[in-house]
Amino acid sequence: MISLKKINKYYQQGDGRVHILHDISFDVNEGEFVGIMGQSGSGKSTLINIIGFLDREYEGTYSFKGDDVSYLNNKRFTSLRNQNVGFVFQNFKLIQNLTVAENVALPLMYAGVKKKEIDQRVSQVLERVGLGGYEKYLPLRLSGGQQQRVSIARAIIGKPTFLIADEPTGALDSHTSAEIMALFKQLNKENKTTIIIVTHDPKVGQQVDRLLTILDGKLISDTGVA
Ligand SMILES: Nc1ncnc2c1ncn2[C@@H]1O[C@H](COP(=O)(O)OP(=O)(O)OP(=O)(O)O)[C@@H](O)[C@H]1O
């Protein structure tokens, strides 16, 4: 489904350019539960910005479901992102003056889905993440773990092809982290959601089915390759 071939990424710095990602090649198939591990500054965010169709300034080939995404115009590239990727962030990125239900509904509102269907799907998806009945709460009244569940609900409500979670347990204590990882595992096993989790926490790295390790912008190991 996701196929990266010799991806190189450079950032402009002053007069020169710095080489951040070096010849990164790997595939992710539908239904996989993949971790990307690496130290701070190793290039993980740079890589997932490319995988999640946020950044298209790179060298190499990214094919998605068989099509090279570099041929898409900006509008199509944006709809590719909106239709296929759900994002979960370390700091949840919830809108504080909107209720839980309104936060979760956002992707469907942007997609023009009718209110009745939105309400139904919001309730279903909140049940799915263990927050049935929390529709009217404001995010600040929830614990960190509950806020992360809301952001996972928002990420999955549009039925994306894959999820990208960037340090999703980074702001949580170890017990809550384990609960959030259990939820990701459940979504992967039961709903067959393809999940890519970025982390520098070895405990999180141990729980994925396949672990890619990045060092200084290079892919140095992939447990999915025999
Ligand atoms: N917009 C930018 N312009 C120039 N350099 C950048 C830019 N964004 C990131 N970098 C550099 O690219 C390298 C990789 O950064 P990146 O954020 O991808 O690492 P990371 O592995 O995600 O780190 P962290 O775990 O701290 O989030 C770093 O050296 C960083 O300073």
Automatic annotation (TrEMBL):
UniProt keyword terms in alphabetical order: Amino-acid transport, ATP-binding, Nucleotide-binding, Transport
InterPro entries: AAA+_ATPase (IPR003593), ABC_transporter-like_ATP-bd (IPR003439), ABC_transporter-like_CS (IPR017871), MacB-like_ATP-bd (IPR017911), P-loop_NTPase (IPR027417)
A single MF term (Gene Ontology): ATP hydrolysis activity
Domain (ABC transporter) ranges: 2-226
Domain of life: Bacteria
Biological process annotations from GO: amino acid transport
Gene Ontology cellular-component annotations: membrane protein complex
Family the UniProt entry places it in: Belongs to the ABC transporter superfamily.
Protein name: ABC transporter related protein
